[in-house]
Amino acid sequence: MKKIKTFFMKNRILLAILLLLALSSWSTVALASANAVVVQSDSVNVRVGPGLSYANMGQVKKGDKLAILDEKNKWYQVRLSGDKIGWVASWLIDNTEVSSATNKVGIVKVPNTTVFKNADANSDVLGTIEQSQKVTIMYQEQDWTQILYSGTAGWVKSSFIQGTDKTSGSTNASDSANSSDNDIKKVTVTQPSTKLRIEPNQNGRVVKTAKVGKQFDYLGKDGKWYKVRDSDGSVGYIASWVVTISGTKSAVKSAATNISEATIVIDPGHGGDDSGAESKKNTYEKNFTLAYAKAIKQQLEKTGARVVLTRSGDDSKSLGQRARLSSKIQADAFISLHFDSSAQANAGSGLTTYYYNKNKDGELADDLNSQLKSLSIGNRGTAQKDLYVLHYNSQPSVLIELGYINSKSDYKYINSAKYKQQVATDVTNGLKEYFK
């Protein structure tokens, strides 16, 4: 009889635990879905900004549920799988429940609160938030709270955030990591021969050319362009990627004019599960890019430059993580390393330096390419190409394909220590020229 009672007692406890887990699971799902939209079209483009003129960053399918973060010009800013942030046209989805106005606002309670990539203190750090700043809360689970941070989703310890009764709609809470437009007072030029244009695009007539360190009064923003006024009263538009902004009286640091002052990001392409191209010798691109990155880092550090690698081991990094690192540390140059591969073995050969924006990246590409011409592998020159780590990089950036890994003639150099050291020397010399 005693055994039977014990059996029923254990089962009651087990049922109670299962019920609590079910309720906990339901509440988490309910919170995640409380601010959802449902895709109605067969497929919908997700763009980097609220308009058809912005680049396409992917698609979502019919039936997908998306969490709304913001609304602008009949576009919804939404959170996608993998915590990516993008914009979708409101007329292509069915807003079945609520709008961005129901996103809750929280206040940071702890100085220099760390924002993590995942709900895990061992995950990558996205940055920090100052005490008393307001943040938009997107999601909560147990000890962690997900917030909108620098245009993406980040996680902070729930105990560090004080919830409020306000919503983002009632307070106009904005991304805590970015200065609001009202806070910007000055923009400072960081690139040589920066153009002030009459219209907010690269085809607009040039009003004047500005030197590094030149400051303008901030008047407003149009897409990725700032509307500014010079001390002589002239008004025009300047590209956001060639200036820094300031909301204080303190000076804004200009771009480095000497390599010893520079912060340089070296990005070894691929890594982890992404092995990249494969040679006929069963060696992988990811291993070569890392070895070359370390060789370049070693050479550059002899000049006094600060060098940061996007990965230092065989780990996976998203393209977004790689590009965002430039902005996060205000890098003066970003160089992504890769090795080409042709559809048929031995069908391709040569080295190519790619850039995305001629005004922002062209000088860096030219200076590096001029040094790389001395390498044993033939040089294909520079070329414009829309590559993610360049397109979504706010800093001067290039991607170098250092030869064809599945070419017998190129591979004998790629696999040699001598060629690797030559590349490191040439990249260092190219950067020395760039920062003169």
Automatic annotation (TrEMBL):
<dbReference type="InterPro" id="IPR017293">
    <property type="entry name" value="N-acetylmuramoyl-L-ala_amidase"/>
</dbReference>
<keyword id="KW-0961">Cell wall biogenesis/degradation</keyword>
<dbReference type="InterPro" id="IPR002508">
    <property type="entry name" value="MurNAc-LAA_cat"/>
</dbReference>
<dbReference type="Pfam" id="PF08239">
    <property type="entry name" value="SH3_3"/>
</dbReference>
<feature type="domain" description="SH3b">
    <location>
        <begin position="103"/>
        <end position="165"/>
    </location>
</feature>
<feature type="domain" description="SH3b">
    <location>
        <begin position="33"/>
        <end position="96"/>
    </location>
</feature>
<keyword id="KW-0732">Signal</keyword>
<dbReference type="GO" id="GO:0071555">
    <property type="term" value="P:cell wall organization"/>
</dbReference>
<dbReference type="GO" id="GO:0009253">
    <property type="term" value="P:peptidoglycan catabolic process"/>
</dbReference>
<dbReference type="InterPro" id="IPR050695">
    <property type="entry name" value="N-acetylmuramoyl_amidase_3"/>
</dbReference>
<protein>
    <submittedName>
        <fullName>SH3 domain-containing protein</fullName>
    </submittedName>
</protein>
<feature type="signal peptide">
    <location>
        <begin position="1"/>
        <end position="32"/>
    </location>
</feature>
<dbReference type="Pfam" id="PF01520">
    <property type="entry name" value="Amidase_3"/>
</dbReference>
<dbReference type="InterPro" id="IPR003646">
    <property type="entry name" value="SH3-like_bac-type"/>
</dbReference>
<feature type="compositionally biased region" description="Low complexity">
    <location>
        <begin position="167"/>
        <end position="181"/>
    </location>
</feature>
<dbReference type="GO" id="GO:0008745">
    <property type="term" value="F:N-acetylmuramoyl-L-alanine amidase activity"/>
</dbReference>
<feature type="region of interest" description="Disordered">
    <location>
        <begin position="164"/>
        <end position="193"/>
    </location>
</feature>
<dbReference type="GO" id="GO:0030288">
    <property type="term" value="C:outer membrane-bounded periplasmic space"/>
</dbReference>
<keyword id="KW-0378">Hydrolase</keyword>
<feature type="domain" description="SH3b">
    <location>
        <begin position="182"/>
        <end position="246"/>
    </location>
</feature>
